[in-house]
Specification:
Radius of gyration: 14 Å
Strand content: 15-25%
Shape: globular
Distance between the termini: 18 Å
Length: 154
């Protein structure tokens, strides 16, 4: 299913960003020359489909992919405007470092970027952990949204 987020009512993101900083993790917009490394990491860690969507995020200006890095190692990524405009995702965190706040900070970075483009709402497409999104940003399920935009996917 897909979920809807009220961008005008996002919670304060500073605690999420501070948590990463205290852990020595840098979160930032990915740079075009990193495309091959980021998409290869996404392909290896998650899937070919997500790597394809991440590739699209690198075609946006500015790049619509954020990464979390520690000591030049990618720990997580999040994209928006990849499968559809105003859609958040795909996103993922290395399973070895999940539950450390990386996913939440990446989520905020993307949603705040979408908000700064003038949108009042964003869609989280093809949600996996619905409870995470409900708690993190107050996302609500969109009725009858499965399989949504992915209907007929090869």
């Amino acid at each position: 299913m897909d979920m809807l987020v009220k961008l005008y009512a996002l919670p304060d993101s500073r605690p999420a960003y501070d948590r990463l900083q205290q852990a020595g993790i840098t979160m930032r917009r990915a740079l075009a020359p990193e495309k091959h490394k980021v998409t290869a990491w996404v392909r290896q860690t998650f899937s070919e489909a997500w790597a394809s969507e991440t590739d699209v995020a690198f075609s946006r200006q500015p790049v619509s992919c954020f990464i979390a890095v520690k000591q030049k190692e990618i720990l997580g990524f999040a994209c928006y405007d990849a499968a559809c405009r105003n859609f958040f995702g795909p996103t993922g965190v290395d399973p070895k470092v999940q539950k450390g706040g990386i996913g939440k900070a990446l989520l905020f970075a993307c949603l705040e970027d979408i908000k700064h483009q003038g949108f009042g709402y964003a869609i989280i497409g093809g949600v996996g952990p619905a409870e995470f999104y409900e708690k993190a940003v107050g996302a609500v399920a969109i009725a009858d949204s499965a399989p949504g935009i992915y209907r007929g996917l090869l």
